[in-house]
Amino acid sequence: MTLFSRKREYFIVFLLLISFYFSIILSFGYFHKLNDIMFWSPDSQTYRAVGNWLCGLDKTNTTTLDALLIRPFFYPLFLNLSRAFGGIYGVWFFQFLMWVFGGLLIYHVVKNNTGSAILALGSSLIYGSNLTLILITLHALTETMTTFLLAILVFLISDARQYQKVYWPLIIFVSALLTVTKPVYVLLLIGVLGYWFYFLIQDIYYKRNKFRKIHYSTFLYIILALLPVFIQISIMKTTHNRFAISEIGSRTIKGFYFARLYKQVNHVSMQEAWEKTKPFDKKRAIKFILKHYKFSIPLYFTLIKENLVTGSNFVNYPRTQKLLDRYMKILNKIYYYLHLLMIIPLAWTIISLAKKKKKKDLETIVFLASVLYLVIFTSGVTFGQGDRIVLPTLPVWITLYTLLITKFNANFARPKAKTQNTA
Predict the structure, then answer these.
(1) CA–CA separation, 204 vs 337, rounded Å?
(2) Is 175 contained in some domain?
(3) ∠ CA(142), CA(94), CA(162), 5° rounding?
(4) Given CB 3.0 to 4.6 Å as the disulfide criterion, which of 38, 111, 194, 322 pairs with 120?
(5) How far is CA 276 from CA 155, 282, 299, in A?
């Protein structure tokens, strides 16, 4: 079945998604304040600054040059193209499209992998019911794009294996785009490249005669797929003479996790902790973290939980919405307990699939779980961002948990009793 071949089903899902979307942004007045909202967040202003630099503006501005250290080029490039199309309404429109197609991709993947239209519809509605993901389409922030790219990745890993020649290049390309959108996904890119290389070595060993025909063209595709990363590294090299993708990781650890640890250890205010930790270099900071491991380890897990159960930073701007704020806090707590609850079915399913040697299903489950836990476990180095840190994993865990429930139930389903014909 090709994508969107059953037009009626997808049209119904489309209508349900956009109905709920516009009921929220119009009824509560968010869309009317788009001019105030779009670049309200300090982070969005840094993306705009990098976008200006890409256009040849503010080339020597220190704030812009500093933003280049932590903001890769891809989302600012998107901002420029969208604003050229329709100003801030262009940004909103394309982010709205990404939100809608993300929901449709979830429906498609779940329907294809479970055969259940009800489960697929429920999965899309779970996606659509997250108010933070809806409201963040009104902000110049990367979460909408990241969520959409992860939805594409879920689709590729679940439904695109038949396209063998471009399967790995496409997965690597999307992983590269994720990396130059949010640099934390460089860990995903490294993992994907490592797994592809493992298969390459296997093919060289077992299918030497086919290597020349299949893999020489694939190498070219892989190099092209990594082009976004090469562009970002070249920007860092030319502007700051640093061979890296971004410094956002080290800055986050020092400015958030390390400062919070210093505050906890020394019983000072957060503002004072930020001031006191500025002179610390990397070596000294690591030494402090290791020395105070009784504080640093629990803090790491505390921050993970905070990022999972916290409310939304976007429902109360430009004005307080107590009902929506309460809704998101409850919803995020439900997500949190769901993540805990699904650990056992996940482990059981992985073991079961490995024993049965169901390679395709095992790869899909492990891949989705790896992406989910990558985001969850890297969230333990920051705080104060609301639920936006783990927000983009919605397509990943919705699909993963739906597949787990389906496979878990299938293994416990009673086999049909065989009937015998009697003469």
Answers:
(1) 45
(2) yes
(3) 85
(4) 111
(5) 46, 14, 19
Other Cβ atoms within 10 Å of 296 Cβ, number: 18
Residue ranges making up the domain that contains 193:
165-242
Q: Taking the alpha carbons of 192, 127, 183, 270 in that order, is the dihedral positive or negative? A: negative
Would residue 294 count as lying in a domain?
A: no
Residue 317 lies in a domain: no
Q: In angstroms, rounded to a whole number, what is the distance separating the alpha carbons of residues 352 and 404?
A: 11
Contact predicate 409/330, CB 8 Å: no
User: Cβ distance 149 to 396 under 8 Å?
Assistant: no
Residue of 251, 229, 240, 253 lying closest to 73 (CA atoms): 229
Integer Cα distance of 102 and 94 in angstroms:
12
Helices (H), 226-342: 227-240, 248-252, 259-266, 270-277, 282-291, 293-309, 322-341
Low-confidence ranges of the chain (pLDDT < 50): 1-4, 414, 416-423
Closest C-alpha to 149, from 119, 123, 188, 113: 188
In this structure, are residues 132 and 386 in contact, taking their beta carbons and an 8 Å threshold? yes
pLDDT digits (tens, 9 = 90+) for 81-116: 999 999 999 999 999 999 999 999 999 999 999 988
> In the structure encoding, which two tokens stand for residue 107, read together?
């429906």
Q: Does 270 fall in a domain?
A: no
* CA gap 404, 413 in Å, rounded: 14
User: Alpha helix (H) ranges present in 342-412?
Assistant: 343-356, 359-378, 394-412
CA-only gyration radius of the chain, Å: 23
pTM attached to this predicted model: 0.92
Q: Output the CA–CA distances (angstroms, integers) from residue 302 to 283, 308, 366, 382, 393, in the order listed.
A: 24, 10, 25, 10, 20
Q: How far is 335 from 82, CA to CA, in rounded Å?
A: 33
Strand, coil or helix: 223: helix
- Decide: 320 and 286 in contact? Cβ < 8 Å: no
Q: SS3 helix, strand, coil % of the chain, rounded to 5?
A: 80, 0, 20
- Predicted confidence at residue 245, as pLDDT, reads 95
Task: Give the closest residue to 395 by CA, choosing from 186, 189, 146.
Answer: 146
Contact 76, 48 (CB under 8 A): yes
Contact between 173 and 201 (Cβ < 8 Å)? no
The tally of domains found in the chain comes to 1
Token pair in block for residue 14: 């489309």
